[in-house]
Specification:
This protein is α+β, with helices and mostly antiparallel strands. It has 3 helices and 4 strands, in the order E-E-H-H-H-E-E. The protein has a two-stranded antiparallel sheet.
Length: about 70
């Protein structure tokens, strides 16, 4: 889904940038340009950051399985 129409940035691009270390809206703005023009996407961007970080482990996707002993 498109989050930033001004720059054509999708939620997938934002999530991938978060996994690569851009864990704040400011870092995402520098890396992708999101929220840098009209700013209407800032609320959705912040929500994506919070949701993605809550599902990750230090910026990396959480493991969905564990090794059996």
């Amino acid at each position: 889904m498109y989050v930033c129409l001004c720059k054509g940035i999708t939620d997938t691009q934002i999530k991938n940038a978060i996994y690569d270390g851009a864990t704040t809206v400011g870092k995402l703005r520098k890396q992708l340009g999101v929220t840098g023009q009209c700013g209407k996407c800032s609320t959705m961007t912040k929500q994506i950051v919070e949701e993605t970080l809550s599902l990750t482990n230090n910026g990396h996707p959480a493991k969905m399985f564990y090794a059996a002993c």
